[in-house]
User: What shape does this take?
Amino acid sequence: MTEPLLTVENLEVTYPGRTGVTRAVRNVSFTLGRERLGIVGESGSGKSTLGRALLGLVPRPSIVGARKMSYAGTNLLACTEREWQNLRGRRLSMVMQDPKYSLNPVKTVGNQIAETCFLHLRTSRKDAERRTLDMLQAVQIRDPEVVYQLYPHQLSGGMGQRVMIAMMLIAEPDLLIADEPTSALDVTVQNEVLRILDDLVRERGMGLIFISHNLTVVSSFCDRVLIMYGGRVVEECLAQDLQQAKHPYTRGLVAATPSLDVRRDELATVMRDPEWLQ
Assistant: This one.
């Protein structure tokens, strides 16, 4: 049996504060192969914090602990900053949710994407520019030569998000964490980006963690799904079986999904039970 690409056992992320400790992620365990793993849950459920913890990006004074957190045999809990720098971007990448806070405002888009080639792929400047233009075109950006010279503030929200996706994919990582990567894109471009991600998983054997609020996209795009509530994973199921989920919270999320085929007089309400946090 093939060894998992990523193994996480009892992951905890806590934030100390004046009134006590906030447990943002609670005893989360899962494995990831070369597949598409969806993580869903409402805002504040711990999805993004989980993704950042896997890349060592949770800021101090937070505390990240786990019984085990390994990537391809590497103990991520014991990584030094230099080792993290070698892993991030080349082996592990993350598409952040809001490009406005992730792109460097004083560098052009092209230079920022090409920098990944210089640092991780050791390419020439000419080859880095060619790869950058190809990737910009792959994420459905018109006139990539023009966009190459633009600064982040000159991009629309959707275009900035596509630039972030291009930046994270250009080094062809083994594991990609995508935090709401299509939330600001129209349906046509969203489908194209999902196709690109799907090709990477199928052709290169990449592992993908897809964080999203969109249950419809997750159920049709991912292989497995983790449902998070209050920092915990309350249920895990095959994406194709999401409609038959057993946990009340998951069923509530599915019931609240908008549908053009079903007329509703009242919106569904997601009920919560304090025992789910125990």
